[in-house]
Amino acid sequence: MMTIQLNTDKNLTIHQEYEEKIQSQLNEGLSRFSDIITRLEVHLSDENGSKDGLEDKRCLLEARISGKEPLAVSNLGNTYDLAITGALSKLKSALEKVAGKMKSH
Question: What are phi and psi of 61, to 5 degrees?
Answer without folding.
Answer: -110, 130
